[in-house]
């Protein structure tokens, strides 16, 4: 969507104030079939051309097809060290809140606000409310940050954090690896929040060190000194405080058309949903599926692919189920191949794709027929999100993999 | 330069779409966003609900297809209106169709921001359902009041958003007046945190 802002800016004869602080990622409509050259979305080539031309004219670095650093912006940005603690990051995409997991203030904006940010290096904002969700205990075996995010949505609702900057804190969060934290913050926007944040700590610093765009040498030491000051002070107060117990979370599954319409995978659907062809009171386990998708800015990282591969090793996708896996970035893809994960997926019957948003959303072009039931590691189950009439059950990568093997919605444990 | 015509007083029979969590994929599906320009998106507004699957045949029951709402400039929504994707096309489509005011108990923050930059008033009001009795309403932004029948209701909007809409102001022009202060801030910040600018 950045190209809309850049074009509009050019038409108004306004310059990008500091192109060195602007990056463009080719992710949403890029083709993800191996050997790709462009996009399969109708009209998409014009978008790609417009983006490349506008970026070239403005002097903006583009991470494009064939670039080893290309990926979904919310996956590649953190892993490249473009997102850093204390940074202010905006992007015309609602899942920018993902990058709050690094202790950045990162939020999604529209095209007009992007234009404002490009032209002035600032945004006009109303201060967000503050919310802290403290998550005590540890997640159980086979329960992931995705399940936690869905459980929080089910508890507090799709507008439970409306307009808030939400800090995720507590034992469960401190125990999470950085990739899991990114998954948790990714779904803050599903909560109506302006952003999600996690306090930077030693786990994060170790993860960031040596990343391509992270500071190095003396600059690293200087940065570290400021980053250590960023965590919330003891005794700080929030507009709203919630507590949640990680031990209560089970693998979750979406049953409706809002991400908050999620339950433990072993539970029954609490109400009818005509679009989903789900009946209230009916079990979700055992519902036959047509397709399985692993990828997206929620669950397209190396740890996600490992979790799915652990379920799939030595097993086969059920007959009649189309399954594909789309790494969240080109470097995730390379790292997975170095571990042989690609073979685990292809041996099981999954398609192994190039990096991009892929079937997380459907903008036209090849897709699934209406009425298809998909289990998907993505973040949104809105009507039509993955295609006209397509029914999306959101879940963790392990649940997607287990369901792909079973041919029905299944518990990964 | 003004960005769009100011929003001051808007009257008419509001179109009720009183479901919660209306997302921007529903307001305009991705497959309808195949153009770079903002104009003409009104025909794609609510495409998934307004037309039969795979066609442009109207679904007669859908609120915007009903003759009494064909001219509606005010839309009544449920909680968490405009959640989901940040696509500004959702607001462009509403505006192009003719909507100038959305009244709902709450808005997703990105959608709300997109509204005020495009001449659509997002008015926050708890009891939206009471406005859906088919009688005309008048929305007065300066007074922050909705008049309906013999009654008036106050609605909420942040002061800067109100000023933008009333003045039809261009945010970039406003901010540019602060150019020297912004440059001074960036210079100080660059010295303190050079890694952000590297
Ligand atoms: S992966 Fe999906 S949710 Fe994430 S940025 Fe891409 S389209 Fe949006």
UniProtKB/TrEMBL annotation, chain B:
Catalytic activity: (2R,3S)-3-isopropylmalate = (2S)-2-isopropylmalate
Name of the molecule in the record: 3-isopropylmalate dehydratase
GO molecular function: 3-isopropylmalate dehydratase activity
EC assignment: 4.2.1.33
Subunit structure: Heterodimer of LeuC and LeuD.
Protein's GO biological process: L-leucine biosynthetic process
Record-linked Pfam families: Aconitase_C
Glycoprotein in keyword set: no
Aconitase A/isopropylmalate dehydratase small subunit swivel domain location: 7-125
Designated gene of the protein: leuD
Family designation: Belongs to the LeuD family. LeuD type 1 subfamily.
Keywords of this entry: Amino-acid biosynthesis, Branched-chain amino acid biosynthesis, Leucine biosynthesis, Lyase
Function according to Swiss-Prot or TrEMBL: Catalyzes the isomerization between 2-isopropylmalate and 3-isopropylmalate, via the formation of 2-isopropylmaleate.
């Amino acid at each position: 969507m950045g190209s809309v802002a850049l074009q509009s800016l050019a038409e108004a004869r306004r310059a990008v104030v500091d192109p060195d602080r602007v990056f463009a990622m080719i992710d949403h409509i890029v083709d993800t079939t191996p050997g790709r050259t462009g996009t399969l979305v109708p009209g998409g080539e014009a978008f790609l051309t417009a983006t490349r031309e506008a970026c070239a004219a403005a002097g903006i670095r583009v991470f494009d097809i064939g670039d080893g650093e290309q990926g979904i912006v919310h996956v590649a940005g953190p892993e490249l060290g473009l997102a850093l603690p204390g940074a202010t990051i905006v992007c015309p995409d609602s899942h920018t809140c993902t990058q709050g997991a690094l202790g950045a203030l990162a939020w999604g904006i529209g095209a007009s606000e992007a234009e404002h940010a490009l032209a002035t290096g600032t945004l006009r904002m109303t201060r967000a409310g503050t919310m802290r969700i403290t998550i005590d205990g540890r997640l159980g075996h086979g329960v992931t940050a995705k399940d936690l995010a869905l459980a929080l949505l089910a508890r507090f609702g799709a507008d439970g954090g409306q307009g808030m900057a939400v800090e995720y804190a507590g034992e469960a969060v401190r125990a999470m690896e950085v990739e899991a934290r990114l998954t948790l913050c990714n779904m803050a926007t599903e909560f109506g929040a302006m952003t999600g944040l996690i306090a930077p700590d030693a786990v994060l610093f170790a993860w960031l060190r040596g990343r391509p765009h992270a500071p190095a040498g003396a600059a690293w030491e200087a940065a570290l000194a400021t980053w250590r000051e960023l965590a919330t002070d003891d005794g700080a107060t929030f507009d709203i405080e919630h507590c949640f117990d990680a031990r209560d979370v089970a693998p979750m599954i979406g049953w409706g058309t809002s991400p908050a319409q999620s339950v433990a995978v072993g539970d029954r659907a609490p109400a009818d949903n005509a679009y989903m062809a789900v009946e209230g009171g009916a079990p979700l386990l055992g519902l036959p599926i047509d397709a399985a998708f692993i990828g997206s800015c929620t669950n397209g990282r190396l740890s996600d692919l490992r979790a799915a591969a652990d379920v799939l090793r030595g097993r086969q996708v059920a007959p009649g189920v189309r399954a594909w896996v789309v790494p969240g970035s080109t470097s995730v893809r390379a790292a997975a191949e170095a571990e042989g994960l690609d073979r685990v997926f292809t041996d099981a019957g999954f398609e192994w794709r190039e990096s991009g948003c892929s079937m997380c959303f459907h903008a036209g072009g090849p897709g699934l027929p209406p009425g298809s039931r998909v289990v998907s590691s993505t973040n949104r189950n809105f009507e039509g999100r993955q295609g006209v009439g397509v029914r999306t059950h959101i879940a963790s990568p392990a649940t997607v993999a287990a369901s792909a093997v079973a041919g029905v919605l299944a518990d990964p444990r | 330069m003004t960005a769009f015509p100011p929003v001051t007083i808007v009257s008419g029979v509001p179109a009720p779409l009183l479901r919660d969590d209306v997302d921007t994929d529903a307001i305009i599906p991705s497959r309808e966003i195949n153009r770079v320009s903002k104009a003409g998106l009104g025909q794609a507004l609510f495409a998934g609900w307004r037309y039969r699957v795979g066609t442009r045949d109207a679904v007669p029951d859908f609120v915007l297809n009903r003759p009494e709402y064909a001219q509606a400039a005010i839309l009544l929504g449920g909680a968490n209106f405009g959640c989901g994707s940040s696509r500004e096309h959702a607001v462009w489509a509403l505006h192009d169709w003719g909507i100038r005011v959305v009244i709902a108990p709450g808005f997703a923050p990105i959608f709300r921001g997109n509204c005020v930059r495009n001449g659509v008033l997002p008015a926050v009001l708890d009891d939206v359902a009471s406005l859906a009795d088919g009688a005309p309403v008048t929305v007065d932004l300066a007074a922050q009041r909705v008049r309906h029948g013999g009654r008036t209701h106050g609605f909420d909007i942040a002061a800067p958003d109100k000023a933008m809409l009333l003045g039809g102001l261009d945010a970039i022009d406003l901010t540019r007046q602060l150019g020297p202060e912004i440059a001074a801030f960036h210079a100080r910040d660059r010295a303190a945190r050079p890694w952000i600018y590297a």
